[in-house]
Amino acid sequence: MTGDMLARGRAVLEAQAFSRLIGAKLVAWSPDLAELAIDLQPHHLQQHGVAHGGVVSYLADNALTYAGGSRLGDSMTLEFKINYLRPARGERLVARARVTGSGKTQAVCQCDIFIVAGGAEKLCAVAQGTIWKVEPP
Amino acid sequence: MTGDMLARGRAVLEAQAFSRLIGAKLVAWSPDLAELAIDLQPHHLQQHGVAHGGVVSYLADNALTYAGGSRLGDSMTLEFKINYLRPARGERLVARARVTGSGKTQAVCQCDIFIVAGGAEKLCAVAQGTIWKVEPP
Amino acid sequence: MTGDMLARGRAVLEAQAFSRLIGAKLVAWSPDLAELAIDLQPHHLQQHGVAHGGVVSYLADNALTYAGGSRLGDSMTLEFKINYLRPARGERLVARARVTGSGKTQAVCQCDIFIVAGGAEKLCAVAQGTIWKVEPP
Amino acid sequence: MTGDMLARGRAVLEAQAFSRLIGAKLVAWSPDLAELAIDLQPHHLQQHGVAHGGVVSYLADNALTYAGGSRLGDSMTLEFKINYLRPARGERLVARARVTGSGKTQAVCQCDIFIVAGGAEKLCAVAQGTIWKVEPP
Fold it and tell me: What is the pLDDT along chain C (137 residues), one digit of tens a residue?
């Protein structure tokens, strides 16, 4: 069941051209939880050699949406907020999001974003946002 | 003077590999104001044919940093929040950010993000955040 | 019409025991706009003699809800974010909120909060949030 | 040591006139953690009989500041964001905040706010913000 869910989630990510451009991977997706990751390449960086804030916030935003979508079905991010804690210098970014609370049409989700450097994970940002069920047209 | 400033700002953007990957342009940069834009290409979209939220939030984040940096010098985004207002379906994204208030080491900035479709601009997101002066090492 | 609206809005505020405790006044309420104010008293302050952050955020939150409610009817704040710009030292707090964008069930609103000192207004905080239409039970 | 810290923290809260008006209590304060609570009275409510959002956000804001202050010393909230999860109907509000990351002059903190009803705690809001060290004049 969860395996099917993960396969479906990966197909959605694959259908997002921008996610392919960035090279994001859906590592895990189960009820109320989502994990996305990016293996950092030179094109993800900014002028100081660390991952661009836009890469970190992309990953947070998308992980929040996946977490909320695990509860709501097809959904989108209504809003989110992110605090950057440290420069994201390393070889891999990992975002882990969870549903904190939810109703019929929305879910509040939170996300921890880690930078993996030399095999060790360090928290580099935290995010919080509202996910919204998309009504079929 | 402002022309020099714009040229300097563009050099910084050009030094960000991720900004080159996304194709962001610094349209205007003057004291307390910044405008960034992206001409939308297929690789900016998500599965429903609109600009990915990560593209919109990248542009907001970067415009906030430029606005704050116009006051503070070399700086970074400490945190920001974004509300998405409508799907970003169109040919161009434009983010206009301004300094709302500032101190010696930080600036609060706000940003309006527009989608341009058929030549008409519509507000598609609003963002608010804190920019932080980076101390030279 | 707008006069009736203001009278209705004041009746709602009067029905909020906490708003009476704080002494908030609805100064203006019209489609997409709301203005709330508090004449500062010693019991609004914190230990440094300025208005407590909780007073400022209360006023921002409530003004956002009134702005959104002008479009949506009976409604509540789903989430908001506030940046404090300067200490609120003065004789009166004024919050002016507006609808930035809205759909059928929600509105994104923004709010400027001013401190009035010696008759002059200074921006002391900015807020942004999502207002949600409350469905009748 | 922690007992002294709690006594000092309570003295600060007692020095905030607005916190006395609201009736907030500092339940616990130790390195990186803070817990504040309010026993709900009729004057804390809004028109639907639940705790006013301004009471919930006051408690979140103050708990964030105490958490950050445990690391930074005298400090203030620079900004925060709150998502309301459910109506705060019950007899007591409890806010538990923690330091998520910190530097020399700032700390990112997160806070869970619970409503206690019939002795059972339910999460009713989550908040995230930046606390700022106040420099002695």
Answer: 567 999 999 999 999 999 999 999 999 999 999 999 999 999 999 988 999 999 999 999 999 999 999 999 999 999 999 999 999 999 999 999 999 999 999 999 999 999 999 999 999 999 999 999 998 76
Task: Find the helix or strand (DSSP H, E) in which B108 lies.
Answer: strand B106-117
What predicted TM-score, i.e. pTM, was given to this entire model?
0.96
Chain A CB contacts of D100 below 8 Å: 83, 85, 123, 126
Distances (CA, A) of A62 to A68, A98, B79: 10, 12, 17
Number of domains in chain A: 1
Say yes or no for a CB contact (<8 Å) between C108 and B85.
yes
Q: How far apart, in Å, do the first and last CA atoms of chain A sit?
A: 27
d(CA D7, CA D23): 17
Answer yes or no: are the C-beta atoms of A54 and A94 closer than 8 Å.
Answer: no
Q: Which of C97, C105, C129 is nearest to C31 (CA)?
A: C97
Q: Is B78 on the interface with C (CB under 8 A)?
A: no
Q: What are phi and psi of B80, to 5 degrees?
A: -155, 165
Amino acid making up residue A116 = V
Say yes or no for a CB contact (<8 Å) between C81 and A78.
Answer: no
**For tokens 């930080």, what's the residue?**
B106
Contacts of A134 by beta carbon, 8 Å cutoff, 6+ apart: A74, A75, A76
Task: Spell out where chain A has E strands.
Answer: 24-30, 33-39, 75-84, 92-102, 106-117, 120-133
Helix or strand run (H / E) with residue C9: helix C2-14
Q: Are D64 and D71 in contact (CB under 8 A)?
A: no
First to last CA, chain D: 27
Q: What residues of chain D lie within 8 A of the CB of C17, using their CB?
A: 42-46, 52
Closest of B10, C112, A100, A136 to residue D85, by C-alpha: A100
- Distance separating alpha carbons of residues D18 and D29, to the nearest angstrom: 20
Domain that holds residue C117: 2-133
pLDDT digits over A26-62, tens only?
999 999 999 999 999 999 999 889 999 999 999 999 9
Backbone φ and ψ for C124, nearest 5 degrees, come out as -120, -10
CATH of the domain at B55: 3.10.129.10
CB atoms within 10 A of CB A5: 14
Local confidence band at D62 (pLDDT 50, 70, 90 cut-offs): very high
Give the tokens for residue B133.
Answer: 């002066």
Average pLDDT over residues B89-115: 97
Task: Report yes or no: B11 at the A interface, CB cutoff 8 Å.
Answer: no
ipTM: 0.95
